[in-house]
Amino acid sequence: xxxxxxxxxxxxxxxxxxxxxxxxxxxxxxxxxxxxxxxxxxxxxxxxxxxxxxxxxxxxxxxxxxxxxxxxxxxxxxxxxxxxxxxxxxxxxxxxxxxxxxxxxxxxxxxxxxxxxxxxxxxxxxxxxxxxxxxxxxxxxxxxxxxxxxxxxxxxxxxxxxxxxxxxxxxxxxxxxxxxxxxxxxxxxxxxxxxxxxxxxxxxxxxxxxxxxxxxxxxxxxxxxxxxxxxxxxxxxxxxxxxxxxxxxxxxxxxxxxxxxxxxxxxxxxxxxxxxxxxxxxxxxxxxxxxxxxxxxxxxxxxxxxxxxxxxxxxxxxxxxxxxxxxxxxxxx
Length: 333
Ligand code: TRP
Ligand code: SF4
Hints:
By secondary structure, this protein is mainly alpha-helical. The chain has 2 domains: 5-188 and 296-326, 3-Layer(aba) Sandwich (Rossmann fold), CATH 3.40.50.620; 209-286, Tyrosyl-Transfer RNA Synthetase, CATH 1.10.240. It has helices spanning 18-31, 43-49, 57-71, 88-99, 102-106, 109-117, 126-129, 131-140, 154-171, 211-218, 240-248, 254-262, 268-282, 284-294, 297-326; strands spanning 5-11, 36-42, 79-82, 146-148, 180-182. The strands form 2 sheets. Strands 1-2-3 form a 3-stranded parallel sheet. Strands 4-5 form a two-stranded parallel ribbon. The mean pLDDT is 96. Bound molecules: tryptophan (TRP) and iron/sulfur cluster. Tryptophan is lined by residues 7-11, 42, 45, 135, 138-139, 147, 149, 153.
């Protein structure tokens, strides 16, 4: 039996942080043992919000590759590629766009939310409305069975399934596979201020941060506001540093921290120092690998190009099938 196919992408709109590492990358690495994995840099998706200032886009693509490889995504096992190097993504996006009703797109939660919240640029663009159609094209081009995504992406997956069914209904041919979302057991990590960790909130610890930079950030994680004096007993359940401990500190040590916090046997400064050490340890291998790949961006680009070559063949085959189903292939001469 052949392996199920997994496909996932990351929008290359900036530096990755610890939340991305735990939420997605660790999961990607695990999945490559069991599945035929395709992972790609969604650089066109990044353009949907950063269409004016494109200065960092190219570097972000390489940086993404560096982080993936450092995390252990293995080009021998998985196919790594760059969206914008495979024009079939754009062609299928156009074709699917022909059959996708605009109201389906207008009711996608991320669309409404961003229109309301993004202030410094005009998001009323065709490309931004069509974002989930491009995502659908990304997925169905590879006939992916499973798409590992976070909870925020579930509506995009549902829309993809709807578009697939709609296509099959109209053209009476089953070309695509209806993908399923696959949510890993994700370790939950808040940002320094307790909100969701996000580059745009300024509350993130980046994969490119040094252990010293991370320790400085850890020192300002919001703790139990009731612990004003060193002798005040703490409440780990409301402390965001404790949420970090639950992820990075060896499980057998966590109950002792919890008890020492409640009895005020340990102070927040010492508690966070220990946390910083545990984070450093957890990320030690990643950091070393990252330094290696960051020192050889040419090799990283090579790997992405090699994967792109392989992915292109699959994409071309599926697009041809889709055009045939639609009856629009122009005969060759
Ligand atoms: N929209 C996804 C995100 O922001 C990125 C993405 C683009 C994606 N195309 C995809 C994820 C296809 C999975 C499959 O995280
Ligand atoms: Fe949080 Fe640790 Fe301070 Fe308790 S001692 S409030 S767990 S930082």
